[in-house]
Design a protein that fits this description.
With about 425 residues, the protein is an alpha/beta fold. The protein folds into 3 domains: about 80 residues, no CATH class; about 120 residues, no CATH class; about 180 residues, no CATH class. Helix content is about 50%, strand content about 15%. The chain is built from 18 helices and 10 strands. The strands form 2 sheets. A 5-stranded mixed sheet has the order 3-2-4-1-5, covered by helices on one side. Strands 6-7-8-9-10 form a 5-stranded mixed sheet, with helices on both faces. Strand 2 and strand 3 form a beta hairpin. Helix 7 packs across helix 10. It is globular.
């Protein structure tokens, strides 16, 4: 068996040739074509980010670029934007998960069922963590009935070896993750020891909603494919406690009345929502107080820790290292609310979310303010409007174990289309 290792320069040439194919006047194939079609990230070409995500695999690169172009064409935009590249990651990730399941189905029947059981867990595993995962697999009635190969390979070393060979897992050594290669390097399988850390291939992270956390154990209450490893992130609370907190928060959103007398309660609701629903991406949530008309108003600031998806796109586009959440316990926003958001955009963060109690359909009035802020910041900033119905959606998704940024991305798309 012979295979080729592709140099990054030749991968770029393959993509640029295809992008140039239908152009009457051809562009240079030195990165110029790519930057014509794909938006820069932080002032530099987005090509290194894309090719690294696809792990220099030609087939994956072609598929991912195709998804990016499809999304941009559906929006009728002249260039693939950062948001389009992030949205394409999920579609590509789901496609990769299906492909790997189909490719190895003959040797490992119902492989897709096994891989989907990683949903909502961490992206890294110690040998103990993988052992805990396997212990849950071997008592699953569906696994016993459909996947005899798992029972025959239930030792963590043999199970890890299978996942490494199919390209699902890699081994972390010397601060680098080594996935199965091609050519002669593809046959060299690293040994698994008690010190080995295994990492799920990043192209599967979006489809499986993996958290940036190392799994060393799995508590009894963690149900595979139904809930995430909350104990690793939220101060050790159990999954049951987490759901109870979400239920209580959902009730509070409905019962806190709009108005100045309950403004502090609404601020608490927003802060609790950030902590419970956005911990996979946002951390170090702190209040930022200001005084208006002798009233202390608390807005929330959270650090943007995302490594993929919508929140990473906001960091790349708006330099949103911090995310500001403004709390407005009333139904209709006014110009002073947007002036405050504009101040935050200029001084603290490129992304501000105004959380208020009314509908977003007052578009003409609100969108003019947002359009003005975007023009002032040359498009490198964003103000999003979030209401209590949106908060309920975030809570409902988390209660179902779905830690997704799709609804927030939908809010962004709705506003960006309206102000364009």
């Amino acid at each position: 068996m012979v295979s080729l290792d592709w140099h990054e320069q030749y991968l770029l040439e393959v993509i640029e040739r295809r992008l140039n194919f239908k152009l009457t006047q051809k562009l240079k194939q030195d990165g110029t074509t790519w930057r014509h079609f794909f938006e820069d990230i932080e002032g530099n070409s987005s090509w290194p980010t894309v090719v690294d995500f696809c792990r220099h695999r030609p087939r994956d690169l072609l598929a991912y670029v195709g998804f990016c172009l499809d999304i941009a064409q559906a929006k009728k935009t002249p260039q693939v934007k950062i948001e389009d590249m992030q949205a394409a990651k999920r579609r590509f990730s789901e496609n990769r998960l299906k492909d790997i399941s189909d490719e190895y189905a003959e040797n490992f029947p119902h492989l897709g069922y096994i891989l989907n059981l990683f949903y909502g867990l961490g992206d890294r595993y110690s040998l103990n963590g993988l052992t805990a995962f396997i212990s849950k697999l071997v008592v699953d009635p569906e696994v016993i009935k459909l996947c005899a190969w798992v029972l025959l390979n239930s030792s963590p070393e043999r199970f890890a070896d299978i996942l490494y060979r199919i390209g699902f897992l890699g081994y972390v050594t010397d601060s680098r993750t080594h996935f199965r290669g091609v050519g002669s390097s593809g046959s060299q399988i690293p040994p698994v020891t008690s010190a080995t850390i295994m990492k799920v291939h990043p192209t599967f992270a979006e489809a499986l909603a993996l958290q940036d956390v190392l799994i060393d154990q799995l508590d009894d209450e963690v149900k595979l494919a139904h809930s995430a490893v909350i104990a690793e992130i939220l101060d050790g609370i159990s999954a049951d406690e987490y759901v109870k907190k979400l239920d209580a928060l959902a009730v509070k959103i409905k019962t806190v009345p709009p108005g100045p007398n309950s403004a502090a309660e609404w601020e608490d609701v927003v802060g609790e929502t950030i902590r419970l629903c956005f911990f996979p991406w946002l951390g170090a949530v702190e209040s930022k107080s200001r005084t208006i008309d002798n009233r202390v108003i608390r807005d929330w600031v959270a650090s943007n820790l995302a490594s993929n998806g919508f929140w990473e796109a906001m960091r790349q586009r708006c330099n949103a290292l911090n995310i500001v959440w403004e709390c407005k316990n009333y139904e209709k926003l006014n110009s002073s609310d947007f002036h405050q958001a504009s101040y935050y955009v200029s001084d603290l963060s490129g992304l501000v979310l105004i959380v208020f109690r009314g509908p977003r359909d007052e578009k003409k009035h609100y969108l003019e303010h947002i359009r003005r802020i975007l023009a002032k910041e040359n498009g490198n900033a964003m103000v999003l409007l979030v209401n209590d119905q949106d908060l309920q959606t975030f809570i409902r998704q988390c209660r179902n174990g779905q830690f997704l940024d799709t609804h927030m991305r939908g809010i962004y798309d709705e506003i960006i289309r309206a102000v364009a």
